[in-house]
């Protein structure tokens, strides 16, 4: 049962590494500060929702570290949890073969605390909700069956949404390739952001909700998968994904730039000013640490992409940053073809006999799913020289 509080505080502390006993202590201290007691957890089915966006080793900083899963499992069982299940739907197909690769590569199947169950149920349920964009959507059965959802996110930049933290991480409760359909249904970032807030609002209103951020090894640049790992040595936790994201936005020096937080604030789910959010732990809002996060390449000219047509939106599209196949890197594997919601990528055999992806830009909606899911980082961006100069 939900007890969502729009004035929920955020716990923030220094966390220098992935030492499991130290993480257990961090989490217990945070839970105590946030009043997350056995009353909330005892006898409940707990769901850990990590960020397993693709099959990447933890040292790349793109996916939640397995040490967090181990530590959280221990804390939840200490608080009397009936069960702890880990579930996520990465980009691409949602089936046993795809998940086995992701669990193995991300280190989830080596978590020593075998009381945690890796989800193997690939079904989903239909949910009806009075969202701004979503009235009915599919959600992983494992998530729907849980009493308590722990959103275990990363501190990362994101080519489409600017930042991936607690709210964006919840996109992974949508099964498999349906996520691509969401991109094609909501090609503009403001609409996509409203949809993300619909998902998060549904969860905070229907479950006991906790967000925990693995900000030990974060990511800057072309996140969520092909950015540069960045040591920030932070741990964040909150009962509100919106409050946690406002603080994360401030830590990354992105204040006021994340559209889904504007949407959440308009709905009265959070204050848009980080100074209004009570900060627990070793810092307050004045001393809160900040880092220079390199923004994604898509940031240049981003202001153009959501201009309405009457303000020159048609013309603006000419100047937008666009995805570009890096010809010398692409191996023609076709992963981008299946991940493109607009079906606008094909594989062509070139004169040298090599296969390479080709983007037909006319239908491209700049969702950057191709960049996110290319296994070798062979999708870059092409910036208009004028915009590059201005930026
Ligand atoms: S761009 Fe990446 S995903 Fe697409 S074919 Fe080339 S290597 Fe594969
Ligand atoms: S080409 Fe890439 S950015 Fe364009 S619609 Fe397809 S996946 Fe999205």
Overview of the structural elements:
The protein is globular and about 65 Å long. It starts with 9 loop residues before the first strand and ends with a helix. Strands 1, 2, 3, 4, 7, 8, 9, 10 and 11 form a nine-stranded mixed β-sheet that branches. Strands 5-6 form a two-stranded antiparallel ribbon. It is built from 15 helices and 15 strands. It has two domains: 10-281, Rossmann fold (3-Layer(aba) Sandwich); 300-390, Alpha-Beta Plaits (2-Layer Sandwich), CATH 3.30.70. It has helices at residues 20-33, 38-41, 66-78, 96-105, 141-145, 166-169, 178-185, 189-206, 241-251, 259-266, 302-305, 313-319, 335-339, 369-373, 385-390; strands spanning 10-14, 45-50, 83-86, 116-118, 124-128, 136-140, 148-158, 162-164, 208-220, 228-238, 279-281, 322-325, 345-349, 355-359, 379-382. The structure holds iron/sulfur cluster (2 copies).
Summarize the topology:
Layout: E1 10-14, H1 20-33, H2 38-41, E2 45-50, H3 66-78, E3 83-86, H4 96-105, E4 116-118, E5 124-128, E6 136-140, H5 141-145, E7 148-158, E8 162-164, H6 166-169, H7 178-185, H8 189-206, E9 208-220, E10 228-238, H9 241-251, H10 259-266, E11 279-281, H11 302-305, H12 313-319, E12 322-325, H13 335-339, E13 345-349, E14 355-359, H14 369-373, E15 379-382, H15 385-390
Parallel strand pairs: 1-11, 2-3, 2-7, 3-4, 7-9
Antiparallel strand pairs: 1-10, 5-6, 7-8, 9-10, 12-15, 13-14
Helix pairs in contact: 1-3, 8-10
The structure holds iron/sulfur cluster (SF4) (2 copies).
Residues 323, 340-342, 344-345, 359, 364-370 line the site of one iron/sulfur cluster.
